[in-house]
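FIELD: query
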Amino acid sequence: MLRHLRTRWPVFSGIIILIVGIFVGERWGLYYSLPHFDKLMHFLGGAAVAWFALSLFQDELVHWTGWKQLVVLTAMACLVGVLWEFAEYFANFTRYTHPAFYHWYHGGDLTDTLGDIAADIVGGVVFALWALRKERG
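FIELD: result
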């Protein structure tokens, strides 16, 4: 029960980021009108994933050094970012078979993909460093 309560806010935050990133961003053309909106969404997503990982594995992580905690939280953000990019890649194949789905969810080229993964990692690192500093301070 306690774990369920700890994970509620990171999951809620992640859902909000997904709604804003996918539906609001596409509906109002934020990906085209705001420079780096895509990278901001990936940065926030990486931070939300690291927050979720921290809340999910907190009991285990407290026994590890700060360096190991940083690596685990960053790795979780990176893993989810890579899985997201694979999903975007496969969504590109739905352009003609499911155009409505493709409209809301599709990926870019290699440069965009690598930039997105980098933003996920940086979001995870920034959150992890903030959380570790808060824990020790």
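FIELD: remark
The chain has six helices and no strands.
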